[in-house]
Amino acid sequence: MTNILEAIINISKCDNFNIKEISESKNRANSMGEALEKFIKDSFAGTIDVEDENERNLKYSSEFSWLGSQNNPPDIMIKGGDAIEVKKTQSANSSLALNSSYPKHKLESSNPMVTKDCSECEDWTEKDLIYAVGHTTDNELKSLWLYYGEIYAAKDEIYTRIKNTISTGIREIPNVVFSETKELGRVNRVDPLGITNLRIRGMWQIENPRKVFDYIFESSNSNIFELVSIIPSYKYYSFCKETIEIIEADEAISISEVKVKNPNNPAKLIDCKLITFTKKR
Question: Fewer CB within 10 Å, N- or C-terminus of the chain?
């Protein structure tokens, strides 16, 4: 079973950070997003240098139980392991657009945004969630952040409280026909003819990890590729001892102890490993 440490090791061996556009997509932004997602899959599957598509697909099938749908989380699920959400930014410090899905502390199979096929792709109820945030320009991956949702997002009830309060408020408007949806809500038959409906969607966004974690790491503006990973210490030591020995023996990879603010109570700190790797582009 692959994991975030193996992905970091694989990326550290990579010589080229030009990620290719997916030609099938007519939208350039979507195209680069798909290219980034492919790079993340290859990093975890160990197929960065594999050119044969059949070989790559077999390795994907071996390592992953889910490879995502465009509008539903997650993008990737490791068999028996973590889930991965891939986000692309076109500027180094821009906020992440989450659209109708609020930030995830963990990923639960019961989440209404998770499809039935995803919830049944393996026997699972909850997975740790890795955010993979890549800054790309043109065909090039300039930086990549890999970190866990539990040190980034608050627990679900923080977000659902807002969502539910908005939905309740809409229901209290006199003479509206409210429909339950996966969005914030839908009001039907708004006008006297009953032909106009109102869809109410949440457009969530969250600050870039460069800003969120700037108190433990300052990004470089030089002409280098930069990989930054933040892993709770208990999670780090749960991985295979052999993998830990390999990553700690790699002189190109830097590992240090840091303390990160708890997203549910910033007065409390979480022991984490800060792992960094840089390479001239």
Answer: N
For residue 10, which phi and psi values (nearest 5 degrees)? -65, -40
What's the predicted TM-score (pTM) here? 0.91
pLDDT tens profile 79-128:
999 999 999 998 889 999 988 888 999 999 999 889 999 999 999 999 99
Cis peptide before 74 (omega within 30 of 0): yes
Cα–Cα distance for residue pair 4/133, rounded to 1 Å: 13
The strand ranges marked E within 33-180 are 64-66, 76-78, 83-89, 96-99, 106-108, 126-137, 140-148, 177-179
Q: What is the pLDDT of residues 118-176, one digit of tens each?
A: 999 999 999 999 999 999 987 789 999 999 999 999 999 999 888 788 777 877 777 77
Which of 231, 262, 73, 236 minimizes the C-alpha distance to 146? 231
The burial of 246, by beta-carbon neighbours within 10 Å (0-12 exposed, 13-18 middle, 19 or more buried), is given as: middle
Beginning with the edge strand found earlier in the chain, give each strand of the sheet holding 198-200 in spatial order.
Answer: 177-179, 185-188, 198-200
Question: Checking phi first, is residue 141 left (phi over 0); if not, alpha (psi -120 to 50) or beta?
Answer: beta
Contact 230, 147 (CB under 8 A): yes
Q: How far from 240 is each of 6, 48, 55, 70, 175, CA to CA, in Å?
A: 10, 22, 25, 32, 60
Do residues 95 and 205 touch, judged by C-beta distance below 8 A? yes
Phi-psi region of 51 (alpha: psi -120 to 50; beta: other; left: phi over 0): alpha
The domains of the chain are located at 4-156+204-280, 161-198
What are residue 269's phi and psi, to 5 degrees?
-115, 150
* Alpha helix ranges (H) inside the chain: 4-12, 28-45, 53-63, 116-119, 156-171, 209-212, 233-236, 241-249
